[in-house]
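## retry 2 of 3
previous attempt timed out at serialization; input unchanged, resubmitting
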Amino acid sequence: MTSKLRGHPGFLEHYQELLGAWTRRLRDRARAEDLTHDAFVRVLETPAAEVQQPRAYLHQAARNIAVDGYRREDRRAALESLALAPDAAAGADPEAFVQAVQLADAVEKALDELPPNCRKVFVWQKLEGLSQAEIAERMGLSRNMVERYMMRALKHLRGHQAIRYVVAASIVAAAVWLGWFTQLRHDPAYQGQFATVLGERRQFDLPDGSHLELNSRTRLSVSFVDGQRQVTLQEGEAMFSVAHDPSRPFVVSAGAGTVTVTGTRFDVRRDPDQMQVAVESGTVRVQGHAAPVVLTAGLGSRIGEDGQVSPAVPVNTADLTAWRSGKLVFSAAPLSEVVREVSRYRQQPLHVSGKAAHLRLSSVFKADDTDALLRALPSILPVSVRTLADGSAEIIAR
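## retry succeeded, writing output
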């Protein structure tokens, strides 16, 4: 091979450098020699006139070969190896690559410490280049909430001395690592979009064996990536029957809150101003902006739009999830809550005002016939129902 390379001036002087760099990284002389050999074989397949920078070309060839190999191995091993892969084209020196490995470990640890929504916002903005407006639309949040998540992530990451330069993207080694981090860490193994329209209920099975039941007017997305099964509930309500897998947590994000489980049955509902969680079986962790709340079977919680999580309280999961069989069950529920629930099943919303909002209703109705509820309501409670000009209805006290 040495004699053949004489037709490619400038390559031989970099042989030992390349071999040494990969030997230190792989800690395996034989594998490093194989990689270096393959890189030089690739050189022989390229006309010398096409190579303007021999050192850069050689190191890039070696890294490309490593990528092909490591994609078939564990992602973590690939991440570490590519973090140190010499990027001669960028002009980095060996010390920068050693620092890149240390930064890779520090950044990954710091990111894993962040709540799921904070981590998503940071990765999508800093690593994937999305604007806060694009992130807000993707997550179904306000831009103010996205900005708050970003500020929290930056504050957390800047607290780690070893990765301050990564956050600021100010050194070559960090930039090299971040590019590969984005490629390897966020390549979804599965993605899906699910939705229902007014009056529709649907069921879906996921590749991991989990089962979804979507209520009326619900939209959610599913992504299996980075050792997690991630769900974003944009609007509506869903019942999750999660296949047990401790190695891949199942994380549901809805507004300012997240729910994390490994295998259980629970219901999540997203309203404009809050997220509600009720657990039928198993254990879930509800996370907002403060300490998480752990829920077990028969318990529920709410997360406000400010990220505050309410304490766990007993709930009737059978009543809350009666929508799965097409029923609306109310047990001493204030009319304000009844109106919120029934509006989800009507083309035009309901309204309630004054003292009527505090009256309580106990009854069962069909979800696909909410007009029957309005006809019956005046005979159950001291209220009247009137139709407004826009086609909506209003409940008022008599």
